[in-house]
Amino acid sequence: MRRLLWFRRDLRTEDNPLLSFEGELLPIFIFDTNILEKLQKDDKRVSYIFHSISKLKEELRLLGLDLKILYGDPVAIIKELHTLYSFDEVVASGDYDAYARNRDLEVSHILHCRYLQDTYIFRHDEVLKDDGTPYYVFTPFYKKALKVLENKNLKPIHLASHTLLNEEYKGIFSFDGLRFEALAFRIESLGFVPVSLNFQTLQTKIEALKEKLSSYKEQRDFLDIDATSHLSTELRFGVIGVRQLLRETRSHPQGEAFVRQLIFRDFYAYLLFHLPYIENKNYKYSFNGIEDVEKYQRFCEAKTGVPIVDAGVRELLSSGDMHNRVRMIVASFFTKDLLLPWQWGEAFFAKHLLDYDKASNILSWQWSAGTGVDPQPYFRVFNPYLQSKKFDKECVYIKRYMPELKNIEPKYLHDESSLFSMNIEDYPKPMVYHKEAAKLAVEIFKKRMELVG
Ligand SMILES: Cc1cc2nc3c(=O)[nH]c(=O)nc-3n(C[C@H](O)[C@H](O)[C@H](O)COP(=O)(O)OP(=O)(O)OC[C@H]3O[C@@H](n4cnc5c(N)ncnc54)[C@H](O)[C@@H]3O)c2cc1C
Is residue 346 part of a domain? Predict the structure, then answer.
């Protein structure tokens, strides 16, 4: 058998089911121009992927495989490779958003495709209700998922013996019309600027996580404590496999709260698979926010005048990350206090998050907007001042990202009326009165709910 091993969301050799195949193999990674064309030239994710595939290339070399790094439209590239070398099949891990599904469908018209379950813990048809239909509510999904997990084989995959495609495939480099790594394996050749990222080794992160597990449940929401794994980007690109992470954490006496979050991640991908239209549309309520470019601009520039919200935006812009609790506060403020369309907020996060994942991001934004599958109704509105008082009491997080507020006492930064009455140099007054804005949002949603039904 002659196979193309297509690395996509599984950029690792450890416990990667792609490497359980025998026969003649050609491992490839494709820098997809359909995606790259939409990104800014200093997009951090391109640097992250670049770093990860360089490492993957080294690791594969130790196994006797040579990763080919390609650039172009994946369907066209696979078609050309197949014409040149007649593969029996392409093997890849499943990828479920609308773009990925269409792309994979097109590839399946070219040659046989075998999609593996790797990115998530469960296949989309593995956790279903007794009547065979999907769950749309997390708690029952979670209970069933735990049962399915008990019987799941989480053992690492067995590395197969393989043969690298022989000499002839060296010709790939000289094939006309496709630009390959031989051009020079540099980010600049893709038209992007390298961005320096703060990389910690996986081992360091996993060891740190094991220390954090006993207090993860109690501390994960606090902004002045480093209580979470920081593994979402590694999970997004498959630099760590979710099965490995389960093996590392499941047996810990207090591992359940962490495993619950991994199952949350699965749940969101599962929902996007079963309800693909929610990528663009509300699951419930016809209200879609009010388009206001000026408000949006102030938000994007971290000038809302609400310290915890602006600190979150600054964290995102500077590091490509934002603490989960702050993501929730920011998304609630955006969709309820500012009444902006959740799709705009989703797109802003999509542009900047290093761990950007369509399913988690879209579903979380719909959750915050109150338009998603979550049974909690529209009237859940976070009070950003109470949130910062509770989770960032001494304003350690706020002041880390907002040096202009460093001399202001924390109690004033958690208090809306103080922020309205003070004149802080280089910092605006809040854009809205929270109570009034929240009341208005609830009234609008209520009317729309009545309209719908
Ligand atoms: C508005 C909004 C947008 C979000 N967008 C994304 C996104 O694009 N990509 C993304 O990976 N996560 C997203 N999340 C979820 C969550 O904020 C991040 O996964 C988390 O902050 C990553 O930090 P961590 O790795 O330290 O998490 P940990 O607390 O250590 O959790 C472990 C892993 O579980 C998963 N996880 C944790 N919390 C959630 C959650 N609430 N929903 C889904 N998965 C979760 C992540 O893969 C995470 O790495 C979003 C949340 C909100 C509220």
Answer: yes
Q: What is the pLDDT of residue 174?
A: 39
Ligand 1 geometric centre to CA of 263 (Å): 11
Distance of alpha carbon 57 from alpha carbon 78, whole angstroms: 19
H helices within 63-198, ranges in order?
A: 74-85, 98-108, 138-150
What separation, in Å, do the N-terminal and C-terminal C-alpha atoms of the chain show?
57
Find tokens 């992160």 and name the residue: 205
- Give the ligand 1 atom nearest the CA of 234: 49
What is the tally of structural domains in the chain?
3
Span from the CA of 17 to the centroid of ligand 1 (angstroms): 24
Same domain, 356 and 416: yes
Cβ atoms within 10 A of the Cβ of 187, count? 17
Residues of the chain whose pLDDT is less than 70?
Answer: 162-185, 376-377, 449-453
For residue 380, give the CATH number of its domain.
1.10.579.10
At 317, which amino acid appears? L
Query: Considering only CA atoms, which residue is closest to atom 26 of ligand 1?
Result: 230
* Domain boundary residue, one of 68, 103, 118: 118
Q: What is the rounded CA–CA span in Å between residue 187 and residue 191?
A: 7
Q: Which residue bears the tokens 């025998």?
A: 22
Domain boundary among 244, 274, 304: 274
Number of the ligand 1 atom closest to the C-alpha atom of 231 = 25
**Residue ranges making up the domain that contains 370:** 293-452
R_g of the chain, CA atoms, integer Å = 24
* 59-85 confidence digits (pLDDT tens): 998 888 888 888 889 999 999 999 988
